[in-house]
TrEMBL record, chains A, B:
Full-protein residues shown: 244 to 504 of 504
Originating species: Electrophorus electricus (Electric eel)
Gene Ontology annotations of biological process type: deadenylation-independent decapping of nuclear-transcribed mRNA; P-body assembly
Gene: EDC3
The organism's place on the tree of life at top rank: Eukaryota
Annotated ranges, domain YjeF N-terminal: 36-240
Listed name of the protein: Enhancer of mRNA-decapping protein 3
């Protein structure tokens, strides 16, 4: 064993075609470079071409994001049969896009674990298919859905999960529901977890305490808070096919904290 | 808080239409009744009708089963960048059915986490679609696939994952590949984890140290070893629609140990 351990540890196990705007490191010192949104998108499209469909990704992201949220809510100390009368409350703010669908999947898994979930989703005549399928499943939990910010709680909740922003449709930010929801989040005193937040130049409307990136991180701004990385099940050769040399930084975990290097 | 906590804790939060052949309990004393295979099947069919497709279930089962397997393999102590030269080896034995597909999904997630995975799957001319889609994804990991027991390791592996049995096609047990694979598993000295093992009267060909049931447990025989329950993301009303009164026994976990009550 000693002979084997004497080999030097390689900390730079992930290399990307273009140097990212930021580098992160894991608790054990592995380097995790950031990638551009364009490369991230190509990575997901490549994964989809091998059968890792959006549906599967929604399920996996929902499970892992809810595992992180359950830890933030207090984990085993909070969720025992003995304090079933003091269930934590989560306000889940979703826009009408894939990021919103990821949030609803997370919300379903939280509601399945007896968390009180209030989902805010603005009314639209025509919804993305990924949203409607997530909503059908969410409606089978004990979770509550509202389409007006007025129906969100007046008092602080335990956690706000922010999935209002999409990586592409930045024009949504000008809509009244978006402004109302971000104002509500900024006025509620609960800590905010952002799932898959974008980096598109503009200031993020809601300051997060934690942000969860998927697969590989984008170069997130300060307002994204502490960055975590979520395993979304991409095999190594999928990274390779978009030019990324990859070795998992996750160890035995599926969500890990990242530190600015 | 004291006033709320004074309410008595209800330990029987799950009730089933027919009393199951066995009752289990969780670490915190919640009662988890077993259900029949027929009711389990109706539960999954109901979930599928609301959009919780086989694909989604495969993804979630794979994630949660691999989280359990990673813990059994030693968790953070075993999987650090420092002992990357001593990667654990898992032999994954799969039959040509949904149980096999669940195993391959678990194998992909393990291989994604730098576990050395050797997948045994017998050759068939026509495979179930769920199997071929899992195989495509598995082939993008560093995992190895073999179709002959001769190509499985001679030396003990760290863990055998058994997904050879289906709930319905018990005739597979008479096939030469089945016998060869179960003989191999019984001769290798590694501990065995069975995922979603059936209860169909016959003796289980491979004795398991642990068995992972999905959603709600069947009444497993002694040879199934220690029983664990895996959350597969079913919302409460889905249980209700097949006559099961359900409240999650999982707390903040997605895999929990069950004890014979």
């Amino acid at each position: 064993e000693n002979i084997l351990e004497a080999k030097p540890v390689v900390y730079r196990q992930i290399t990307v075609p273009q140097p990212g705007a930021k580098e992160y490191s894991t608790d054990s010192g592995l380097v995790v470079p950031s990638i551009s949104y364009e490369l991230h998108k190509r990575l997901l499209t490549m994964a989809e071409s091998y059968g890792l469909s959006l549906d599967r990704r929604l399920e996996m992201t929902g499970v892992c994001a809810s595992q992180m949220a359950l830890t933030l809510l207090g984990g085993p100390n909070r969720l025992t049969p003995k304090n079933v009368h003091q269930r934590p409350t989560v306000a889940l703010l979703c826009g009408p896009h894939v990021q919103g669908a990821q949030g609803i999947s997370c919300g379903r898994h939280l509601a399945n674990h007896e968390v009180e979930v209030i989902l805010f989703l603005p009314n639209f005549v025509k919804m993305l298919e990924a949203i409607t399928s997530e909503l059908t499943l969410f409606s089978k939990t004990g979770g509550k859905q509202v389409s007006s910010v007025k129906d969100l709680p007046d008092t602080p909740v335990d956690l706000v999960i922010n999935c209002l922003d999409s990586h592409e449709n930045t024009f949504l930010r000008d809509q009244p529901w978006y402004r109302a929801a971000t104002d509500w989040a900024n006025q509620n005193r609960a800590p905010v977890l952002s799932i898959d937040p974008p980096v598109n130049g503009q200031e993020q409307a809601v300051e997060a305490k934690w942000s969860l990136s998927l697969g590989l991180p984008l170069a997130l701004p300060e307002r994204a808070g502490r960055v975590y990385l979520c395993d979304i099940g991409l095999p190594r050769h999928v990274f390779q096919e978009v030019g990324i040399k990859y070795r998992s930084p996750f160890g035995c975990k599926f969500v890990i904290p990242l530190h600015s290097a």
